[in-house]
Specification:
With 280 residues, the protein is mainly β. The protein has 2 domains: 174 residues, Jelly Rolls (Sandwich), CATH 2.60.120; 80 residues, Immunoglobulin-like (Sandwich), CATH 2.60.40. It is 9% helix and 48% strand. The protein has 2 helices and 22 strands. Strands 1, 5, 7, 8, 10, 13 and 15 form a 7-stranded mixed sheet that branches. It is elongated and about 85 Å long. The N and C termini lie far apart (83 Å).
Length: 280
């Protein structure tokens, strides 16, 4: 019975290690669905891609070491902060925050916060302020801290001002051990998983008299044409559009159009949309 128990525990440990490795690469980042407190029990190396951070403003050679990748999407506008607390209080955690695109996050990531401060090697200058807890806070004004611990370095960077729909990546390195960390959140902005956008065209009012508002929901960025055709197929209105992912609102004057039925088309290389419009 004892051998069976030990084998079961070893199996559970093996599964935990696999799960930890899943978050060691950008492409396998853990998607955070709320501002709950998350605990990463331990890391397990630098993953299959050990050079995904590369050169940043705080380090020309930011190598991954016991790395963990997290991702989230802002659900509301506002300030967003977080605090990383190493499970071993004296561990040195570094991190980089990237702003990215939900459709291709790893290829489009751009560093916007970079924390590399830590122990002053071969120096008598105290490193106490740059070890242990780290993150983003409202009172901080710097967006990066380089290696070591000098001047006003305090292990915290400026808070994010996010907009709904913005997607972010967070890479965390533990330079001291393979122990994990806890992340706590602050600020009024809410976070969640990336929102899946679908192509859609709506309009109001319909029937319209003087003006009509077209709302286009785009799943991808695209160049498009908006056209309005009468019942004989003639184009009576035509506009060029540069669509971005998400919702865009377009106001159209229809007061010059004769009373009748029309077809509104949004035409692009990736998707075509059509709706009937009644002008009174």
């Amino acid at each position: 019975m004892r051998n069976v128990t030990l084998t079961f525990l070893a199996f559970i440990l093996f599964l935990s290690i696999i799960n930890a490795q899943n978050y060691a690469d950008c492409g396998r980042a853990l998607e955070l669905t709320s501002k709950a407190t998350y605990t990463i029990a331990y890391s397990s190396g630098s993953g299959q891609e050990a050079n995904e951070i590369k050169s940043t403003v705080c380090s020309e050679d930011f190598k991954e070491q016991e790395s963990t990748w997290l991702t989230w999407t802002a659900q509301t506008d506002g300030e967003l902060t977080f605090e990383l607390r190493p499970l071993n209080a004296d561990d040195d955690l570094d991190f980089v925050v990237f702003k990215t695109e939900a459709d291709h996050p790893c290829a489009s990531k751009a560093a916007i916060r970079c924390m590399a401060s830590g122990e002053n090697l071969y120096s008598t200058i105290s490193s106490e302020e740059c070890i242990g807890r780290t993150g983003l806070r409202s009172s901080a004004t710097d967006q990066s801290e380089k290696r070591g611990c000098y001047g006003l370095d305090d292990n915290f960077l400026e808070a994010l001002q996010v907009k709904a729909g913005d997607t972010y990546l967070l890479a965390v390195n533990n330079h001291s051990s393979s122990d994990g960390f806890t992340i706590d959140w602050g600020g009024e902005a809410l976070i969640g998983p990336a929102v899946a956008h679908e192509w859609q065209l709506t309009m109001a009012p319909n029937p319209a008299v003087d003006r009509c508002t077209f709302v286009i929901e785009a799943a991808t960025a695209a160049e498009a044409q908006l056209e309005i055709r009468d019942i004989t197929g003639n184009v009576v209105v035509q506009r060029n559009l540069s669509l971005e992912v998400g919702e865009q609102v377009i106001e159209q004057d229809v007061s010059v159009l004769p009373v009748g039925a029309y077809i509104v088309n949004v035409i692009s290389e990736v998707q075509n949309l059509s709706q009937q419009l009644i002008v009174q």
